[in-house]
Known about the structure:
CATH class: Alpha Beta
Helix content: 25-40%
Number of helices: 1
Radius of gyration: 15 Å
CATH architecture: 2-Layer Sandwich
CATH topology: Macrophage Migration Inhibitory Factor
Strand order of the largest sheet: 1-2
Shape: elongated
Largest sheet: 2 strands, parallel
Number of domains: 1
Amino acid sequence: MPLINVQLFEGRTLEQKRAYAKALTDASVAVLGCSPEAVDVIFHDVKKSDWASGGKLWSDPE
């Protein structure tokens, strides 16, 4: 039973999340041979001020 945790910047629409959850589920079924009901996807919306890359917050101006 795969559990997929997805962290992304906040602001995605429900439609985008639905489509992404479907795509991840379909890929898991195709690759792992599990049933769609066995796939769980959890979305974690993250503020840009709570995410840094290379020592710089994404909310910081360029």
